[in-house]
Amino acid sequence: MKVLVIVVVVGAGLVTLVAMLAFIRSRMRAMTQVLREKYAHEDLLKVSPRANFFGLASKGMAQVRGNGALVLTRKGLYFEMLWPKREVAIALVSITAIRTPRSFLGKTVGRRLLEVSFRDGAGGTDSVAWWVEDLDAWVALLSEITGVTREG
To answer: Is the domain defined by 2-151 classed in CATH 2.30.29.30?
Structure first.
């Protein structure tokens, strides 16, 4: 009897997990499509529908990491996080450095990240990082259109 209860509980947990992952995947697809449409007039260059946000340096280490879509156009780099709702917009002319560290704000996934430093609207500097698929292509394209070469 105990084994049957365990099997039922584990089975229900797996079904719930699969349903949650399917829901998240469909929300990511929908959000990516919205971003494609939103920035289509800006000459879309690259989209990463499964970018993992590591935070803004200015906000400190306590930020929540999250998944979302990263979009590169001829004018800017735009990110929209699925949950909690967060948007980051960086004009390409404000980018000052491109790096590929293995961690950012004390967080890591064991792979290199895309870190972008930029001048903020207040005259200071800030940086942001994401894990993206096809990191080298992101770095090459960002470097080509901004004229900023990768550091380190």
So the answer is: yes
